[in-house]
Specification:
312 residues; alpha/beta; 10 helices; globular
């Protein structure tokens, strides 16, 4: 039985990797400024490395200065691109996000590509310094809040792109506005699925609101990878973590393909509101993702709890 399982794993991964290798060639990014949150490790660093190879001016955001320095050195070495820098920020608090925005706006006139890559899951329910449930904040409210504050810099770019990383967990999500922060009932995957569905609904709403502008919004699904959100994370159930995830998990380098395509492909010029799967193929989100009324209610609730109001 174990032998059969190993054969299944090998065959599946062969064809899965074969599909990933067919990802379309991406466009050079010379002269474009790219900002990646969670860019010092895992999928974020892999995305940054490939975009730096395309000569983008790269800004990676992380919370650990040593890891950030190592990431910058590695990306510069692999890409032969000296225009790579890291900014240290605590993205688990609105104050930290505000400080990040101030730092970026003081150095750069515009942002061409914003990649909201931070992802988080935890066994225990945790609360940020602002009082937000941590999975909800880092996976959804953070992109909502950061994008809001960076909107002037995105508008200043000729044709900006916003890429939100939202894996397939959103398909299993259900948004409960009465208990959005999982106070009454907390289960890690349920909280993650809700946050990712919220991110997808927000992305589609934002794309519609920005249709008459030069800003495009894309959702990128990295699939399952061996990054920090992958099989090694104890928040996943044992069977899923030990048996199912290893079957489909890819390296961060392969998982980065959908976001790289969304951030840089010429095929997507003039398009918006698209979902890019792990093989860099444009697909339609499931029905629960594209629900205008639910999306509007979520949007309004998010603005209220964050104390902001989008001017779009």
């Amino acid at each position: 039985m174990i032998t059969d399982y190993l054969i299944l794993v090998i065959v599946y991964k062969y064809f899965y990797y074969l599909g990933l290798q067919r990802i379309k060639i991406i466009t050079y990014m010379r002269g474009k400024t790219v900002l990646i949150t969670g860019g010092t490790a895992g999928i974020g660093k892999a995305i940054g490395t490939e975009l730096a190879k395309k000569q983008a001016q790269l800004i990676i955001v992380g919370s650990d200065s040593d890891r950030a320095s190592q990431a910058v050195e590695e990306i510069r070495r692999l890409s032969s691109n000296v225009f790579v820098r890291a900014i240290i920020a605590d993205l688990s608090s609105t104050e930290g996000v505000d400080e990040l925005v101030d730092s970026i706006s003081a150095r750069y006139p515009s942002i061409d590509v914003l990649i909201n890559n931070v992802g988080y899951i935890s066994i225990e329910r945790e609360v940020t310094i602002d009082g937000f449930e941590k999975i909800l904040f880092l996976n959804y409210l953070l992109p909502f809040y950061l994008t809001f504050h960076l909107m002037p810099m995105l508008r200043a770019a000729p044709a900006a792109r916003i890429v939100n990383i939202a894996g397939g967990a959103y398909k299993h999500g259900a948004i409960n506005l009465a208990d959005l922060q999982s106070i009454k009932r907390y289960q890690p995957y349920r909280a993650l699925a809700q946050a990712k569905l919220a991110l997808v609904q927000y992305s589609l709403q934002l794309a519609k609101k920005l249709e008459e502008t030069s800003i495009s919004v894309f959702i990128a699904d990295p699939g399952v990878s061996t990054s920090g959100m992958g099989p090694g994370n104890p928040a996943w159930p044992w069977l899923y973590r030990k048996i199912l995830m290893p079957l489909v998990a890819t390296t961060p380098q392969l998982a980065a393909g959908s976001a790289i395509y969304a951030a840089s492909s010429g095929d997507l010029e003039g398009k918006t509101g698209l979902f890019i799967n792990p093989k860099a193929t444009v697909i339609l989100p499931t029905g629960k993702a594209d629900q205008p009324v639910a999306g509007t209610n979520l949007w309004n609730t998010s603005e209220t709890i964050l104390g902001i109001r989008y001017d779009v």
